[in-house]
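Progress against Task 2.4 (sequence-to-structure conversion) is shown through the following example record, which the project officer requested during the mid-term review.
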Amino acid sequence: MACFYRYICRMPADHCPPLTRESIQEKIDQHGCFIVQVPADDYLPGFAYTIGLFRRFNHPEIICFGLPLELMASLLNNACDQIKAGVSFTTNTPYKELLENYPVQFLPVDPAYYPYYPAVGSYFYEHASFPVLQLVWPDKQSLFPWDPDFHPALKRRQPLLDRNADFIFQEERNVAVFTTRQVLEGKPILYVYHDEDGDWQFHSEEEPLEEDIKLVALSAIVGIAPGIVAVHQLSYGQQASRASAANTWQYE
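Structure tokens generated for the chain above:
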């Protein structure tokens, strides 16, 4: 059995000091891999991922989203056992032996997602290059998220990490968000709010004037400030701020 560790922080690894590399390596040596579990919150799905498959077996690490944590841990444990036995999982291939009654597939994870999802893995590998595969599960009709008739209620539970690395937000690109005239004129975004009702606000002033408020597409904000994707994991009711564009985000 692999070792499970529930890691509740969703922010980038430099905001959430992880376990030591030595303690993670000890569990890899004992069990073959180390499994990190991150519970769901009101906004983002839970996920789980391995650390150590690449170092121990030269196999990509594996990440999975949107299922109960115990089930995802069991899936990853099963995959680890098969990798120990010599199996090598690849993309564009259905695998029927991992999830009972349903096939799963694997996608290559874009490294742009590493600071936000397999963040402890990035820490463990000291931010060196390492491959990650995303285990993707289907709906009850065995359709996958990229299939036209995939169940729409399940899409948000399983973000696909092989695409949209320039955007990353869970919402659609054309969703309306609040900003100010000053941001649209070039002032840096210093305050970000993700309201309880799901609305996003991106401001250069802590308390902007009502007459300066503008409504734009979220893609327009990302186009103005591509680095704003760093705060895409803010849950409902959370906010982030920074002293200047050169400073790191502080989360509340």
